[in-house]
């Protein structure tokens, strides 16, 4: 029988597990992170981990959900929705999302290691992510639907696919250009994509 924890103990241990998970998942990834790694320094045994999370994938998802509101605030509320005009909004969204992928180790890892998100999705109910109120993808879809008259194509899946293609650029940074030229290429590409997806303003 698993030990009983007070509310304060449970909160403290959960925080330690989340901190360990964030550090380990971003440095060595989901697959290479063991339960032994996750419980280190928490004062609990591996078997007691399951009192707190159903699996290490559930811990990974919890970390994503915690960060989701912050990410949405930066890339949707602070960029996409803040600019006047759809074209400027898409441009700001791409720049903000690329900055997020570069500066947020967990989200950046999901871009460079999509198999980790697939592993999380296989073990858990994907509706937990898609139905989250702060999901940036849901907010982007709502923006595209609301501004469909400003877009050259009314197929949101096509537009999202084009935006995702731009977000894959950092994966190929070293192959595309030197460090001085890469930001200029990226800026120009973002301008071309934003202009190409929107009607003349």
UniProtKB/TrEMBL annotation:
Keyword Ribonucleoprotein attributed: no
GO MF annotation terms: DNA binding
DNA-binding region: 34-53
Organism field: Nonomuraea deserti
Name of this chain's protein: TetR/AcrR family transcriptional regulator
UniProt keyword list: DNA-binding, Transcription, Transcription regulation
Cross-referenced Pfam families: TetR_N
Sequence ranges assigned to domain HTH tetR-type in this UniProt record: 11-71
Xref: PANTHER family: HTH-TYPE TRANSCRIPTIONAL REGULATOR YJDC, TRANSCRIPTIONAL REGULATORY PROTEIN
């Amino acid at each position: 029988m698993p030990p009983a924890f007070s509310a304060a103990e449970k909160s403290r241990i959960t925080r330690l597990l989340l901190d360990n998970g964030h550090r380990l998942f971003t440095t060595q990834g989901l697959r290479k992170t063991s339960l032994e790694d996750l419980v280190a320094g928490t004062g609990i045994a591996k078997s007691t981990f399951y009192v707190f999370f159903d699996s290490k994938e559930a811990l990974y998802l919890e970390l994503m959900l915690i960060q989701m509101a912050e990410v949405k605030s930066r890339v949707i509320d602070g960029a996409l929705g803040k600019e006047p005009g759809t074209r400027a909004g898409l441009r700001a969204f791409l720049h903000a999302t690329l900055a997020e992928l570069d500066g947020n180790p967990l989200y950046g890892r999901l871009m460079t290691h999509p198999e980790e998100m697939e592993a999380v999705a296989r073990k858990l109910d994907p509706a937990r992510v898609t139905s989250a109120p702060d999901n940036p993808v849901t907010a982007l879809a709502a923006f595209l639907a609301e501004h469909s008259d400003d877009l050259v194509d009314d197929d949101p899946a096509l537009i999202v696919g084009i935006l995702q293609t731009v977000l894959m650029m950092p994966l190929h940074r070293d192959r595309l250009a030197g460090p001085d030229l890469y930001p200029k290429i990226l800026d120009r590409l973002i301008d071309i994509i934003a202009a190409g997806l929107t009607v003349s303003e």
